[in-house]
Every structure is written in C-alpha cells, then in structure tokens.
Amino acid sequence: MLSFFKEYKYFGIAFSILSLIIILIIYNILDVYRPLPIYQPSRVSEELVDSTIQHKSKYHKIADFSLINQNGDTITQKNYEGKIYVADFFFTTCQTICPIMTGNMKDIQEELKEDNDILLLSHSVTPEIDSVAQLKRYSVEKGVIDSKWNLVTGDKKHIYELARKSYLAVKTDGDGGPYDMIHTENFMLIDKKKQLRGFYDGTNEEDIERLLDDIEILKEEYK
C-alpha cells in the first residue's frame, strides 16, 4: 500500500495543481462578484494619515463637512447623502499634476454624467487663493457640470482635517505651519455609507479605468 502511494505521489501533486489552475480560470471567466475593501487608517500609508488616528482599524467614515462651492452654495455631507462619490484635493494655480487630475476627473464626469448616483468633489488646498470667484472661473474653463461636480473652498483647518483625518489623502508640508499641506495625486472612492473604498492615482489613465470599474462593482452592493 505504501509503495502504491509513493508511485502516484507526483501524479497527485500535479493533479492538485492542475485542479487549482482550472478553478481559478473558471472563477475569473464567471467574473464572480468580489466586494471592494473598506479602508481603515491602519491600512493606509502613515504619511497620509493624521497621527491621532493611525491606530484606527475599524468604523472609519468621512466626517461631516461644510464648504462653499464654485457657485457660492454651502455644500455639506447632506448633498452627498445616499450617493457614491469620487473626491480629490487640488488648487487652481497648480501647474504640475492638477491639470492632469482635473482632466481625468472631467473624463469621469463625462463617463458618468447620466448616472445620478455618482457625484464628484474636489477640495482646494489653498482656500486663501481659491475664492468662489476663482473656483467659478476655473470650473467654467474646465467644463465642470455644476450638478455633478463641486469644487469647494472654505476654512483651511477644516479642509486640512478632512484631508488628513477623513480622506487619508494628503501629506503634511513639514515647514512648521500648523495647517500647511501638499496635496497628492490620490482620487478616493467613497460609498453611500461614507466609507473609503478605493485609492487611485489621478494622473494615471489605467487607474482611472480601474476606478470606473470599481464604481460598477460598488454599485452592485446596492442592488
């Protein structure tokens, strides 16, 4: 009996590997639904997370906010209640990554402009420069659809805390200022429960495609 098992040992190993490969192929062909992760501060790079919440491993949500958009309207969490949305941080005078990010955000807007469940939200990291009038000029220039995409300004401390404690998206500048920051290229995907469901490079076209795919995956949760 022992010699029998020895004789067929390698056959069994090969058969097991082949079976696993077949299962994986079938799994991918059938496109089995796989929910997106829910990101917690403890799962995100420490340089993007305020030190007071780096230990947090559950129950993280986007905090309530009150900001002013390109039309001078007050925008709060209620404007995004029951919606999936994509958020980022930018400033209108940026000449490096912001134009690319804004262009890609516009592509997302155009792709999803008929989908009323999806909204966009861009926060200025230089609110002292980005007045309502400045945001309005920028939004017209970039082809922003007001009902779809809010560009917001407001109190710098409030925006800083949202960036570092809610969206887990922005690095500190390190120049000694209490609320100075440098934005990153991150786009964040937020679900209807105010939870972080994905991070994407807003300057990378492949990541934008992945974001659009992930939105469709996320929508399956609400069917």
Brief digest:
The protein is an alpha/beta fold. It is built from six helices and nine strands.
Report on this model:
The structure is a single chain. Strand 4 (118-124), helix 4 and strand 5 (149-152) form a beta-alpha-beta unit. With 223 residues, this protein is α/β, with parallel strands linked by helices. The strands form three sheets. The protein has a five-stranded mixed sheet with strand order 5-4-3-8-9. The mean pLDDT is 88. The chain contains six helices and nine strands, in the order ααβββαβαβαββββα. The protein has two domains: 1-32; 41-220, Glutaredoxin, CATH 3.40.30.10. The protein has helices spanning 2-7, 9-29, 98-112, 132-142, 156-166, 205-220; strands at 66-68, 74-76, 84-90, 118-124, 149-152, 171-172, 181-182, 186-190, 196-201. Helix content is 36%, strand content 17%. The N and C termini lie far apart (55 Å).
Q: Structural class from helices and strands?
A: alpha/beta
Q: What is the CATH first-level class name of the largest domain? A: Alpha Beta
Give the mean pLDDT: 88
Considering DSSP H and I runs of 4 or more, what fraction of the residues is helical?
Answer: 25-40%
List the strand order in the largest sheet.
5-4-3-8-9
**How big is the Rg?**
22 Å
